[in-house]
Amino acid sequence: MGAKKRTHKGWKFALYVTGDTAISDSAISSLEQICNSYLGKDYAVEVIDLLVHPELAHQHQILAVPTVIRTYPLPERRVIGDLSRTEQVVAFLELPAQQAQTTSRPERPVPPK
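Now predict its structure.
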């Protein structure tokens, strides 16, 4: 019997940073919060430190950091710079408009009037 290929339907992102700095940490945290809110657990983020892999800056056409690239689903989408403006990041990365459900607070039914 042959092995079955599992298709991954989740979202994939590459986040380019430079070193272990406050700006890098903020970008990582902001992207994770946005993904958790809008995609639930259906995503993967690869953090790429350009101080460790400087050749990737030219290869992937990174002009400034931090830069996040939505690599899946295609087409690619990029956000360069501060990731703290959630609405702009969501729009540029074309994330689903409705936020993912959270388990922290169940919805209360609205009584009829």
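The beta strands are 11-17, 43-49, 67-72, 77-80.
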